[in-house]
Amino acid sequence: VFPSLAKAQASVANEVYQELGQPSVFLFCPTEYCSSLCSPSPSQSCYLLTIGQELLPGIGVIWTGPKVVSQELSATLLEEVEGVLHRRPVIWDNLYANDYDCRRVFLGPYTGRAPGLMTRLCGLLLNPNCELQANFIPIHTLGSWFRSELGRCAYPDHAGTETAAALGDSHGPQEGSYSPQEALELALLDWVAEIHRQASEPGR
């Protein structure tokens, strides 16, 4: 019935989206959801080109970055993805995901995301560690990053100087800036306080 997988997926997604009354949040995860799965590249992928053309504009498209688990996200890559999809992507961030190797737990700060990235996104989902308590620092530092991005939006002079460099290079507590090390220290302070609070609860 359909000439390609992309045409079939877009048709089904569009029909479901319309049948549900075009909800404000409706997410589509493409078969090619990161650069390493695209052939030869996101901007030249026949599959993504078809998805971008056929999918209704109100449907959000999920993207994980250069790889399934991306150490860095740059504004340049997101511009390329936005161009081919005709919409800003929703990042499904697997930075902390450990479901593929449960012997590992990721406790570091949210890092490797370029300054000013939020203006290139339609949204961001964080795929956490499988172990609930191990996600305190990831989620706390993501909150710090998000607040710094809001600051950048409020101060366009800072946003105008965005680069694709990793956030680990950022120094100093400037308005609209993010320091992974400072965010980690704040998260650790709050985590210790939370551990003490839980330990003092009756019955523990």
TrEMBL record:
InterPro entries reported in the protein's UniProt record: GH, Glycosyl_Hydrolase_84, O-GlcNAcase_cat
Record-level GO BP terms: glycoprotein metabolic process
Gene3D superfamilies linked to this entry: Glycosidases (3.20.20.80)
Residue stretches making up the GH84 domain: 1-150
SUPFAM superfamilies: (Trans)glycosidases
Pfam annotation, one family: NAGidase
A GO MF term: beta-N-acetylglucosaminidase activity
Coiled coil: none
Domain of life: Eukaryota
Protein name: OGA GlcNAcase
